[in-house]
Amino acid sequence: MQDSIIIRFYSGLVWYSKTISMKKAITLTLLLAFVTVSFSQQAVQKHSLTQADYLQKSKKQKKTAMIFLGGGAALIVTGLVIPQGEPTGFQFDPISGGFYEGHKNDGIKGALVLTGVVSMLGSIPFFIASGKNKKRAKANQASVFINMERTPVLQGTSIINQSFPVIGLQIKI
């Protein structure tokens, strides 16, 4: 009887140690695979965009903004033009606490108008980003300018401001 208890205990211990060893082996294999993959990744080289890239990006963003704006306006107009439909009876309005006469198409009209407003509001970030990218495109270019500048000049015993033309080249880095 004691031999069978010892054998059961020993076989349970062997099974437990094999399970622990297998868990450790699987965990270490997955960890090693993950570490190998993470060290194999290439660092992304970040290149600066050129003036043409910024202008193209600005045009795409402005086109997207105009599509959102026009689509939103079309949805609002469609929601307002759809007829009310047949009356469905009086309904309770939880916001005002009163009753109003409901119509068959109230739900679709409200959904179209709401979607149109959200679409129009969604166009605003695209307009802002388009303007910023257009400014970045203009800031990256060199410009030549001609100005009249004034400088103090010593003439005899007095200092006078004399104007003279200036040609300049401005390069933004």
Report on the architecture of this protein.
- There is one protein chain.
- This protein is of the alpha+beta class and 173 residues long.
- It folds into 2 domains: 1-35; 51-141.
- 60% of the residues lie in helices and 23% in strands.
- It is built from 3 helices and 4 strands.
- The protein has helices at residues 2-39, 51-81, 106-139, and strands at residues 87-93, 98-103, 143-155, 158-170.
- A two-stranded antiparallel ribbon has the order 1-2.
- Strand 3 (143-155) and strand 4 (158-170) form a beta hairpin.
- The longest helix is centred in the first third of the chain and has 38 residues, at 2-39.
- The chain is flat and about 95 Å long.
- The protein starts with a helix and ends with a strand.
- The model has no long low-confidence stretch (mean pLDDT 80).
